[in-house]
Amino acid sequence: MSKNAKQNLADSKKMSAELFCLTYGSLVTELLRDYEDPKEVTMQLDKMGFNMGTRLADDFLAKNSNVPRCTDCRQIAEVLCKNAIPCYLGTTANSSNWVGGDREFTIVIENNPLNELVQVPPNLLAAGLSYSQVIAGAIRGALEAVHFKVYATAMENGANTEIRIRFDSVLKDNLPAGEDD
Amino acid sequence: MAGIIAIYIYGRENSRLFHAVNPEELGNVCDIEMFVFCSLDIVDEKVVKSNEMYLGQLFTDQRYKSFGFVTNTGVKIVLVVDFLNSTLKDQDVRSIFKRFHVFYCKTISNPFYTIGSPLHSRWLDDGCKEIFAKSE
């Protein structure tokens, strides 16, 4: 990250992690009350994330002008872990668990700020609620905005959140992002 | 720290939110609970006069002594200690209460917790394990 971008990050207005965590928590519980089906809630969170991601992609590229053009999944993973996640979540992430000829990998987000104070009840987890799916959706949306089609799902693992990403294809045409959801 | 018997958390209307008893004392739960109920009455007396959240020692009999703590929102924490215990200083009790107050705050910040229902969280469980382990 360039010096300039770092300065921008430090200058940008900060939000209390607790307030953020509580806001997101009440959003999820409200969705649960409205939809009554945890699977449906996961889908909605994914959709919200997707819409955020398509917008964030441009914002991210504007702020970080030194991000290289990605040609393979390892580069995508590196940009996500080293630049994008620290920039928007303020925490570190690592990529691991590469399978299928580098087409599928896991990003482990340490100390995910979304579930800092959250303990998801086991029955909701079993029913298919993925609490941090909004992050997975955002990654999917952001990559789709730069013409990579991926599938992303979020899983909780203790204090860490694992985002499983499967690369599908490069979108050839120049459809504007967000028109095909 | 030795001889910590139990910790109880009560809501504003004296509804029980959380309790944990030292595994060695599980046979005496009835006696301990009776003792805690007596202590709760003294909490109500003391809270009017007190000008801080820590209320000090509440009550004592031949087997136990209890300490109290009331938050500004009316949540009461009662700590039961062995009567013969003399290693536990006032400062230690204060720090235990302060820690459990933080655990309580963290637990109720969980969006899946409904206010007024019993508390379950890994913070409280770990905190209890720690104070009971130290008391062996």
Automatic annotation (TrEMBL), chain A:
The keyword Transcription regulation does not apply. SUPFAM superfamilies: Ligand-binding domain in the NO signalling and Golgi transport. GO terms for biological process: Golgi vesicle transport. It is found in: Endoplasmic reticulum; Golgi apparatus, cis-Golgi network. Keywords: Endoplasmic reticulum, ER-Golgi transport, Golgi apparatus, Lipoprotein, Palmitate, Transport. Homodimer. Part of the multisubunit TRAPP (transport protein particle) complex. May play a role in vesicular transport from endoplasmic reticulum to Golgi. Required for the systemic spread of the RNAi response. This is Trafficking protein particle complex subunit. The lineage of its organism: Eukaryota, Metazoa, Ecdysozoa, Nematoda, Chromadorea.
TrEMBL record, chain B:
Belongs to the TRAPP small subunits family. Sedlin subfamily. GO terms for cellular component: perinuclear region of cytoplasm. It comes from Caenorhabditis auriculariae. The keyword Aminoacyl-tRNA synthetase does not apply. One of its GO terms (biological process) is endoplasmic reticulum to Golgi vesicle-mediated transport. PANTHER family: TRAFFICKING PROTEIN PARTICLE COMPLEX SUBUNIT 2. It holds the Pfam family Sedlin_N. Keywords: ER-Golgi transport, Transport. It is found in: Cytoplasm, Perinuclear region. This is Trafficking protein particle complex subunit 2-like protein.
